[in-house]
Amino acid sequence: MRIGIIAALPGELKPLVRGWERQRTGVRGISVWNTVRGEDELIAVTGGMGSDAAMRSFTAAEFLGALDLVLSVGWVGALVPEMKAGRSYIPSEVIDAQTGERFFLARAASSLRLVTTAGVADEQAKRRLSESYGASLVDMEAATVARLAQIRGIPFGCFKGVSDAPDAVLPDLNEFIDARGQMRMLPFLAHVAVRPRFWGSLLTLGRNGSAAARAIADEVNRFLEAREWERWS
């Protein structure tokens, strides 16, 4: 069975793909790791933030053959205080804020809604999304991965780790994301270097992101070891 694991950034996958083989892609911004566990081949891909990048990542995961299962993993923002930073969650529903499409997940013990947006949501946007959609989490890729899985008729799962709280005060990251969904780190670092009000929140974001990536890896590994998708109807 070929299982695709789609994320936006390498940091989201770092604990999960430790010890996997990294592949040369020759494509800027696309990173691919793979490993074999028993009868399953796992292919993990990062291709950047946003819908277009998620589509490129999906294509890269399919390069050597069709997928039998796809997982969208990575960092999300919390829209409500109940979603704790550094923790991993499994949404039961994904909503595309651009199109209004809703995707329901087979594997979810509780009702938890994630909304996918075109950009990084700030504090005000998070409040609006929570009120408009009744959502608890926000990301930029899950709805695209869910749509591509639905088109292909393959199962879809979602594992997301919270990197920032609803009231996190961060610089506007959107102006530092390039056309391929990659962070322009040098301009970003130059921007925040002269704005000390963001230093503390960015350090917290980094700590939360590392904890969330470890939590995602633990959750995904449990899921894969238990072969939980085999119980999906």
Gist?
With 233 residues, this protein is of the alpha/beta class. The chain has helices at 10-13, 51-61, 123-133, 142-152, 185-193, 199-226; strands spanning 2-7, 21-23, 31-37, 40-46, 69-78, 88-89, 93-96, 102-104, 113-116, 137-139, 156-164. It has one domain (2-231): Rossmann fold.
Q: In words, what does this structure look like?
A:
This protein has a single domain, classed as Nucleoside phosphorylase domain (Rossmann fold). It is 32% helix and 25% strand. The chain is built from six helices and eleven strands. Strands 1, 2, 3, 4, 5, 6, 7, 8, 9, 10 and 11 form an eleven-stranded mixed beta sheet that branches. A hairpin with a 2-residue loop joins strand 3 and strand 4. Helix 2 (51-61) packs across helix 4. The longest helix is centred in the last third of the chain and has 28 residues, at 199-226. 41% of the residues are buried. The mean pLDDT is 94.
Features:
233 residues, alpha/beta, Rossmann fold
User: How many angstroms does the end-to-end distance come to?
Assistant: 17 Å
Proportion of beta-strand residues: 15-25%
CATH top level label: Alpha Beta
Q: What profile does the largest beta sheet have? A: 11 strands, mixed
Give the tally of structural domains. Answer: 1
Identify the CATH architecture. 3-Layer(aba) Sandwich
Find the CATH superfamily.
Nucleoside phosphorylase domain
The ordered H/E elements are: EHEEEHEEEEEHEHEHH
- Total helix count? 6
> C-alpha Rg, in Å?
17 Å
Instruction: Report low-confidence residues grouped into runs of 5 or more.
Output: none
CATH topology: Rossmann fold
Give the class from helix and strand content and strand pairing. Answer: alpha/beta
Number of strands: 11
Q: In which range does the helix fraction lie? A: 25-40%
Shape: globular
Average residue-wise pLDDT: 94
